[in-house]
Amino acid sequence: MSYSQAAATALSEAMRADPSVVALGEDLGRGGIFAQYRGLQQEFGAERVIDTPISEATIMGAAVGMALAGLRPVVEMRVVDFALCAMDELVNQAAKNRFMFGGQGRVPLVARMPIGLWTASAAQHSQSLEAWFAHIPGLVVVAPAAPDDNYGLLASALASGDPVVYMEHKELWGVEGEVEPGRHVPLGRARRVHDGGDITIVSWSKTVTTCVAAAADLAAASIGTDVIDLRTLWPWDREMVLASTARTGHLLVVHEAVQVGGFGAEIAAAAAEATGCRIRRLGAPRIPSGYSKPLEDQSRVAVPGIVAAAMTLLRR
Amino acid sequence: MQHSDQTGSAAPPRDSRSAGIPDTSRLRALYRTMARIRAFENAAEIASQGGVQAWGLATSAKPALVRGPLHLSTGQEAVAAGVCANLNRDDLLTSTHRGHGHTLAKGADVNRMMAELFGRATGTNKGKGGSMHIADFAVGMLGANGVVAAGMPIAVGAAHALKIRGRPEIVACFFGDGAVNRGPFLEALNWAVVYHLPVLFVCEDNRISATTPTGPMTGGAGAGARAGSIGVPAEKVDGNDVEAVAATSAALVAAVRAGAGPRFLHALTYRFKGHVSVDPGAYRDAAEVARALESDPLRLARDKLLARGIAAEVIDALDAAARAEIDAALGLAATAPWPDPAAAYTDVQNTGANQWR
């Protein structure tokens, strides 16, 4: 099953089980621009799979109102870059509602905002802004790297009752993988995708696969690499990451987002504080993504760069 | 600012007097609501003195009982009272940063409201929101909001949910004249039309956006014309005449309840006080303020009651009862317990609760 089908499957199962689950966003009736809603409007009707005007602020804000009035909305923002038109509604309204009104209401909504470089899509359709949302109290932030996790994490996000920022990667939609029906993945739990004792690499979303490829290269140089797919950025799995860094003494955090102020800095600092491990970060340079391939490639995190960063960290 | 509002198709009687006999008991009830709002805000304003550092004013040595900013709706009480008189307890309401009147008129308990302003654990929001976020979900009041126009998308979403769930309730969405210049105004009105939602938009036009007159900041023919251009029928009303507000909103609420889709009430009123409690509003023309005070909604309603044979002592008794109720609320709030500091870590989120760093 593809990464996009996995999400559609999780959502359709939730909609069958709970009539209060609805989805709203632009072009959903046609299946969503990445086919991640394919077939849903045909099955559940236009009242529950809602085609909306291009009104990001009100898509998000209306979802807050829907949640307060008894629904469990799934919001589609197309790409995270467009979610910036809905920042007040997400950050000041959805995330704050429960606390500032003293727990009178809750806002169970899942806001899907695909991230990542998407070939030749340039500066406004390529960003990875997960750190922005991990910074906001009240929000859960999820970034699945594989089809089974996109199924299992979306199911858990829908069930959580919290506002969840759900960040799929635009270059993963067509990736195929085994998906076990009913296997929900708990929020806040990472997964180890490669075992090793010399260095810990933490990543999430699309760069997890790149890190696994780098781990194979490092293995050829007799370096054992623990690769951890964080899966959920907030709350992140401190237990697994800190146990690994305590063992290896070396942590490299890799993400596609701009390195400066990225969430990798938070993981690295927390691990260094807790375990005294040596740390290194690898993310994109602080430049907008360029259109032309030689320019875009400057923003991509690739295997050679990960191997080099690991070698530098290990002083080899 | 020019206003040329589009009128709804089935124009209802605009004033209860057009039915023949003045409805004195209804006016008395509306007056009582306004008197309670006025008393609440006057008391809160006094309790906040010295509490906020702004506009070059220093905080006093003695801590104020209300320590945060208060956006007072003094002078605008007729809009809250007149509209909310047509709402049921289960109807929903979204408000602005100037939301005490809407909250009280929707039926919230004044003791818990005052306790919230005092930051006490017994407040409507357990001391977590204060004046700017006052809310009472139990009476359908979904919250005051610190961001202009932010309640509008929430209101249409709540109405959308009511429609999907097949519920009979409606949503009243209050906002100010400043909100008509924000994008969510356009988006939310359009949304309500596209999905044919049960929502009454109420533009509480006090003619000033924070401290700057709205007219010179606003293109076109104003709030109602903008609503009409999107397809939301709008009615303009004297927002200081509580009977007119009640009668006009009664007709609009009836249309919304009957499934006619969204309606828009443009209520012209005036804010007697500054933008926020520490703002003396000295930037306004004194003559303009003096003229506005002559149209004090409580004074207008009092004159009408007197003209209909209600004795001055009866009206004075309504005022005294409102003040006594608020005095009691002040006393309760001042002795209510503070929140446990541990409450700062509750009501945030379930996923990852206990992970704060």
What does this structure look like?
The complex is a heterodimer of chains A (316) and B (357). Chain A contains 13 helices and twelve strands. With 316 residues, chain A is α/β, with parallel strands linked by helices. Chain A has two domains: 164 residues, Thiamin diphosphate (ThDP)-binding fold, Pyr/PP domains (Rossmann fold); 123 residues, 3-Layer(aba) Sandwich (Rossmann fold). In chain A, the strands form two sheets. In chain A, strands 2-1-3-4-6-5-10 form a seven-stranded mixed β-sheet, sandwiched between helices. In chain A, strands 7-9-8-11-12 form a five-stranded mixed β-sheet, with helices on both faces. In chain A, helix 1 packs parallel to helix 8 and helix 3 runs parallel beside helix 5. The mean pLDDT of chain A is 98. Chain B is an alpha/beta fold. Chain B has a single domain, classed as Thiamin diphosphate (ThDP)-binding fold, Pyr/PP domains (Rossmann fold), CATH 3.40.50.970. Chain B is built from eleven helices and seven strands. Chain B has a five-stranded parallel β-sheet, with helices on both faces. A two-stranded antiparallel ribbon of chain B has the order 4-5. In chain B, strand 6, helix 8 and strand 7 form a beta-alpha-beta unit. Chain B is globular, with a radius of gyration of 20 Å. Chain B starts with 23 loop residues before the first helix and ends in a 22-residue tail after the last helix. The N terminus of chain B is likely disordered. Chains A and B meet through helix 3, helix 5 and helix 6 of A and helix 5 and helix 6 of B.
